[in-house]
Design brief:
- Two copies of one chain form a homodimer.
- Chain A is 41% helix and 22% strand.
- By secondary structure, the first copy, chain A, is of the alpha+beta class.
- The first copy, chain A, has two domains: 82 residues, Arc Repressor Mutant, subunit A (Orthogonal Bundle), CATH 1.10.10; 61 residues, Dna Ligase, domain 1, CATH 3.30.1490.
- In chain A, strands 4-3-5 form a three-stranded mixed sheet, covered by helices on one side. A two-stranded antiparallel sheet of chain A has the order 1-2.
- Chain A is globular and about 50 Å long.
- The termini of chain A are far apart.
- Chains A and B meet through helix 5 and strand 5 of A and helix 5 and strand 5 of B.
- Strand 5 of chain A pairs antiparallel with strand 5 of chain B, so a sheet runs across the interface.
- Chain A binds a DNA duplex (30 and 30 nucleotides) through helix 4.
Chain lengths: 144, 144
DNA sequence: AGTATCAGTGAGACCTAGTATCATAACAAG
DNA sequence: CTTGTTATGATACTAGGTCTCACTGATACT
């Protein structure tokens, strides 16, 4: 079963109709191996209305087909998600994204909940850096 | 020395001029005990131009007078900062912000750097939940 | 089949948050 | 006093996203 079909299955299970517009958006989304902006998808699926692209992106986010990637400058990108709740390490130089295997703050959340009496419902966590390819050996050696 | 004066000192040390517009923005900023948006400041300091408010907010961020608070919906707010690098626990119900004493992911950053060969330069981390006041005893008891 | 209903749609107006431009003003230094 | 620098406000603009609304096309009921 292709990835497209499996996403369609997922939406059907959640009682969403499969329309040509949605299929076009999903196909555009799946064509990316890295992260992308909604504007990228709007450009790719030119026949689909702007509002519909945004609506479909929300659908896909809720269905865990994509996850949101917060870039360092605050802009929001998306990325096809192939695992559950996780976080990202984004290379600020080449834009490459490394998925962290699992949520690394689960323990922290429990500790904080105990210490603060908050009931913690969610969190944002993104790391930024330079991947091994982008940092030159010289730059590494020069670091204190 | 008032808080206003101490912020003014800080900017002077960084070679920024102290102008009436900047003082108005700083006073508006200091009038908030919680977090606030730039639009709040623009509303409060109506005599100051929109661009100048944004410019001054950047100045204050760079001078560590305020820190940025990322809300769950992705919107950016500010908060007077009284310590160095730290993170926030935001109540999604009343908006109250709890500062976490120090950065809780320092160790994590070092581990990740070793595991991924990334040189990690920065991160975003915000927690969301409901403070003890906002969660009713009933709701707490009902949680699994 | 007929019709009522409802999810989904695109066009476009609108909104929010922020940046760019630019002429002008205030100030500092020589 | 002149010259260069920093800061300013008005305004236009942009990016990213939401709202409205008339319309379409499936679905469900009779």
């Amino acid at each position: 079963m292709s990835e497209l079909e499996s996403v369609i299955r997922r939406l059907e299970e959640l009682d969403h109709r499969i329309t040509p517009s949605r299929v076009a958006v999903i196909a555009a989304v799946l064509s990316h191996s890295g992260h992308f902006s909604v504007e990228d998808i709007i450009r790719q699926a030119r026949a689909v209305g702007r509002a519909t692209v945004f609506r479909t992106m929300r659908l896909l986010t809720d269905a865990d087909v994509v996850c949101r990637v917060l870039l360092e400058d605050g802009s929001l990108h998306y990325r096809v998600s192939r695992r559950g709740h996780h976080h990202h390490l984004v290379c600020v130089s080449c834009g490459n994204v490394q998925d962290l295997d699992e949520c690394v703050v689960g323990d922290l959340v429990r500790e904080l909940a105990a210490a603060t009496e908050y009931e913690i419902e969610g969190h944002w966590l993104e790391f930024y850096g330079r991947c091994s390819t982008c940092r030159s050996p010289v730059a590494v050696a020069a670091r204190p």
